[in-house]
Fold:
Amino acid sequence: MKNRKIFLLLSKKVFGMSIFKITIRFIGFTLIGVFSLIAISALVAFLDRRDDSLYPLLISAGVTAAVGVGCVMLTKASRRIDRKAGYYIVTGCWVAACLFGALPFLLYGHEFGLVNALFESVSGFTTTGASILNDIEAVPKGLLFWRIATAWMGGIGVVSLVSIVISTRNDRQSQMAGMELSSIAKEYYHGRRRQFVYRILTVYIGLTVVSSVGLRLAGMTWFDAVTHAMSACSTCGFSTKNLSVAAFDSKTVEAILCVSMLLAGLNFSLIFSTFWPSGSNRKNLFNTKIVRVFLGAVLLGILCVTINLRVSNTYSSWEEALRVAVFQMCSITTTTGFATADTNLWPGFSVGILLIGSLVCGCSGSTSGGIKIDRIWIALKGSSEMFKTLTNPHKYDYVRMDGTIKTEEEVSSVISFIMLYVLIVAVGMVVYTLGGMDFQTGLSASIACMGNVGPGFGVIGSMGNYAGLSSFLKVFSMVLMLLGRLEIYPIMIVIGSLFRRFS
Structure:
């Protein structure tokens, strides 16, 4: 009893009692969601002749369910959730999901020590797709499914899924889903928050199902088809094969995955309104400029890489050069990280194009990471208008993006985000190089983890992994993954708030 009072007093000091209680409640619902996916993974292990991951998954499911139900039962629903509480909830839920998501890996053992188990869990939930596994095919199917299930849950958003389960008629709880997304991500939808989350989930599940069926018809087994579809639609890049997609050596499989990755890199609300148009939301994939800009950038990258690969004699034919260029550009620019070639062997120009793609990446409102093409476009147009004011202070025209006007404050906010993002990448590069990496590998590792891309260059290239990193660099990589997935501000706000309370 005395210990409980001390715990509550400490919680009140750190969080504030109301914030602490509602955060714990949301964490409870999050863990129940994690439990459900672990249970499905255990079923996969059972059907696979009770493979070696069955008992680790069952034990993990029991522990996760017990803690999750306990958190929900010991707290009450809050009638009001402000933005400060929202940031604590989002950060707490993501950290809790990653911690409990590591349990199946840790209990299974083998390559999964404590740090490696956490690394694989964080990499999955943040859809980064970086791995410490040297022999993926030696891992039991149940654990492989769980590995990719973490990415599928992280792709849609941990709190978004929870919000759907517990949202009420007045839509209070659904506002938490907005904390995982920037305002740009919700640009093309102005309805109720709960409906917005439902739209995202409808597109996400639909895209996963269609991709699974397509891959099965292309010759994959059902297990490989479903897992690769889940990985592609979450833009994670986890595979069930050591050689990733190259193991299948199929043009049809690659084509289906390219389409899936590109669609997953577009704004899900636009995809929904394209197939289910409504009077309140007339924007779709065919009349939205930012989609044309993104796809145009991808096509330009493919053209440049294809020419460079063929002219440099990296590949002996234009067809082969085009095939690998298309797949790798689609994979990298959507932050998926699947591989059909060893990009460490590519010339410097092509490597540079891939690095730029790893920084910019897909559209806001998608499952891809990175800065996002929307922000880059707004920053470029805003900077152009600001340059005009240097010679004529009254010449400034508001930036317009698909009919929406951006104020100077909004443009400045976007530019500030990009500058902060690049600064963190630069700091990450310094840390990696101090940890023993060369400049190119360190830079690519920082970009890959911050952008949730996964593969970089050097030892962490498309055919490599992160197993050789020190424990410190692995922990540092996890921090970058979470910062990138939650788009920096939620975690930094929580850390700053905690620092002020203790200082």
